[in-house]
Each structure stands twice: as C-alpha cells, then as structure tokens.
Write a structure and sequence with these properties.
alpha+beta; Cathepsin D, subunit A, domain 1; two-stranded parallel sheet; 12 strands; Peptidase_aspartic_dom_sf; Asp_endopeptidase; Retropepsin-like aspartic endopeptidase domain-containing protein
C-alpha cells in the first residue's frame, strides 16, 4: 500500500508539469525579423532609373515590333495589288477569247512526217532576216513559245498622217548588233496596224504594232511586229509562232541555216537630225 502511493503521485504530476512547460513556451516572446535598412536618396534614385530604363527598353521593343508589322502589312498590300492587276489582265484576256467565234473542233488523221515537212522552210533557232523597207539585215531569235513577233525600237513617237495613226522610231540596237551602219540611228516611219496592251507587275503598257516586209531565206512575207525596246536582250528581232505557222519549222539544234541577206549601202545622211515628214509616204520607209 505504501509503495503504490508514490507511483500515483508521479502519474498525477506528469500532466501538470507538461502543461506548465507548454504554457511557458506560449508565453515566451517571438523573435521578429529586423526591418530593412531605409533607402538612401541615391539608392532610391538608382532603383527608379533602373525601372525607367527597363520600361524604355520595353517601349522601344514594342515600337520596333509595330514598325515591322506595318512594313509587312505594306508588302502584303503591294503583293495583293499586283495579284489584282494580273487577275484583271487575265479577265480581259478571257473576255476577248469568249467574244471570238468558236471554231468547231476538227479531227484529222496525223499526217506522215514527210507531209508535215512538205512546203515548209527549215529554220534554226537564230536566223538572219532582211527588212527591205528599212534597208538592213538583223539577227533574229525564233521562238515558237512566243505568240507575236517583236522588233527592237527606241524613241517611239506617235503622230497622225491623213487621219491615220502613224509611228516614228529608231532601231533599238547595241554596239555589237550586226546592221547596215548607215541605218543605225535613222528614223523609220510606218502606219500603226493596231495596238496591244501588255500587263506587267509594274502596270499596263500599250505598244504599237506595225507591218513590215521581211525576208528569211526563201520566205518573203509581210510580218506584224510589236515595237518595244529589246536592247537589254540578245537579239533585236523576235519571230513568234504566228510567223512560223504553216510556212516554217524550227530545228533548235541549228543556227543560221540561211545566209545573211545583202543590202546596198545607202548614201550617208544625218542620222541624228529631225525626220522629214511628208504626206506622200504610203508604206514603211527609212527616214534619214
């Protein structure tokens, strides 16, 4: 009996001691962090300058991005306009084709090779052509991929004669182009057969079409030429498939199948002077 009393007393004291310990911990003051050091005026100013610099850099980046976006928009607008020009040109071509009477399709047996070559002149990819009305020979490129023929011309000037449209021009030649030298720089006059409209990325252009007598080997034909400046190209004359149709066939592996035509040298004249215009001319001629 006497031995169990101390054990009971200890058991009763343990909860009391634990409560006192917890209460002491709760009453102990908490350690608070010390406040930051106050900013000095120079430190505050430096921090503000840093914020301003970051804000200015951000604004500059935004302005640069807006400028790039604006440039991309302008380029895209220009591309859209160019596509619009091309589409309008295609629409005009389609309208012209729809206005032309449709020919019924004819089915014919493929002729033998000898029949296809019969009555046709063989020409190479480059040939010498003669222009009797002008009085000179020129080197021509023959291209069945081109529709019309073209003659290099500069200083093209339109004028009227007897109520008809005429054009005055000089041959557009480079220094190494073969030509009767007396013709180089001379004025040439011819009536305008019609005008063609050329649609390019830079806009539309109207070019005159004239008719000149042309010789190529045994061929002697009146050919329609579109006048345009070809001095940036290799040949002053281009012959298209309209000229080749039914009269010639191309061997692209050959050049100068036919000899160069000869022309008498005309008397010297002032090639740079103003052309003399009279009403007696009825066909294309070289005007000195």
């Amino acid at each position: 009996m006497s031995s169990s009393m101390p054990i009971r007393s200890v058991a009763l004291l343990l909860p009391i001691a634990g409560g006192l310990l917890l209460g002491g911990c709760a009453l102990a003051p908490l350690e608070r962090p010390s406040p930051p050091d106050p900013l000095t005026p120079s430190a505050f100013e430096a921090r503000m300058e840093g914020l301003e610099a970051r804000l200015a850099a951000h604004c500059a980046d935004q302005r640069e991005a807006l400028a790039r976006h604006r440039e991309e928009q302008l380029a895209l607008t220009a591309d859209v306009r160019e596509v619009g020009y091309l589409l309008r040109g295609l629409e005009d071509d389609l309208d012209r084709l729809s206005d032309e009477p449709q020919r019924p399709a004819t089915v014919a047996d493929c002729p033998a090779e000898d029949e296809r070559l019969a009555n046709k002149t063989l020409v190479g990819r480059n040939e010498w052509v003669g222009l009797p009305d002008v009085g000179t020979f020129l080197e021509a490129r023959i291209d069945s991929g081109a529709n019309t023929s073209s003659l290099s011309a500069t200083e093209i000037t339109a004028f009227e004669r007897d109520g008809e449209d005429w054009v005055r021009f000089k041959l557009g030649l480079n220094e190494d182009d073969a030509v009767i030298e007396a013709i180089r720089g001379r004025w040439i006059e011819a009536p305008v057969e019609r005008r063609v409209r050329i649609v390019q990325a830079t806009g539309e252009e109207s070019r005159p079409v004239i008719r000149l007598l042309m010789s190529l080997g045994p061929i002697r034909e009146n050919v329609e030429f579109t006048l345009s400046d070809r001095t940036h190209l290799d040949f002053p004359v281009l012959l298209g498939r309209r000229f080749l149709m039914d009269i010639a066939i191309i061997d692209v592996a050959r050049r100068h199948v036919h000899p160069r035509p000869s022309f008498p040298t005309p008397p010297d004249a002032d090639a740079e002077g103003e052309p003399e215009t009279t009403d007696e001319a009825a066909s294309p001629r070289s005007a000195g």
